[in-house]
Amino acid sequence: MQRAEATASIPAPAGDLFAFLADPTNLPNWQTGILSAELTSQPPVGVGSKARVVRQLMGQRIVADLVMTAFEPDHRLVLESTVSGVAAVATLELTPGDDGTELHFTMSFTAKNIFMAPFEGMAAGAAQGDLASSLDRLRDHFQEA
After folding, report:
1. What do you get for the CA distance between the two ends of the chain, in Å?
2. Is the four-CA dihedral 30, 9, 6, 47 of positive or negative sign?
3. What is the rounded average pLDDT for all residues in the chain?
4. Domain around 136
5. Tally of domains in the chain
6. What is the C-alpha separation between 28 and 94, in angstroms, rounded?
């Protein structure tokens, strides 16, 4: 397993930030590389909700089906998917503060077979830069709101 992680202070209350992050259709508005996202299960959003995301990663256009595996309002959100033999888990943890919310964003990558093992590191390396950029975009979104 390989990991990428970043933390940022977002100028928004935890409830507002969580509501924005929990809506998969908002992904293209803040997460770097996401071209489109749509909810593919029935609302309301929660554990078991599904979405389809189209992203650009390492020069490739990738379609990924996401499943929400944790949904703790105002605190924690986890999305999981498997694409081409590599499982990805995105964890967003929110900590309320005096001037907004601290957001810790972690992505982990696990190869499902030995042939895909080299791609764990490649995916984590590509994701590391994207995480910081994504958190900058998210901060900008809430500063402009």
Report:
1. 37
2. negative
3. 91
4. 2-144
5. 1
6. 20
Cβ atoms of residues 51 and 34 within 8 Å = no
Q: Would the pTM of this model clear 0.85, i.e. be above it?
A: yes
- Cα 90–Cα 135–Cα 41 angle in degrees, nearest 5: 45
Residues 6+ apart with CB under 8 A from 109: 1, 2, 3, 86, 87, 88, 119, 120, 123, 124, 127
Which residue type is seen at 11?
A: P
Q: What's the CA angle centered on 35, arms 30 and 115, to 5 degrees?
A: 105
What's 23's domain CATH number?
Answer: 3.30.530.20
- pLDDT tens, position by position, 58-116: 688 989 999 999 999 999 999 999 988 889 999 999 999 988 999 999 999 888 877 77
Q: Are 89 and 80 in contact (CB under 8 A)?
A: yes
pLDDT in tens, 124-143: 777 778 899 999 999 999 99
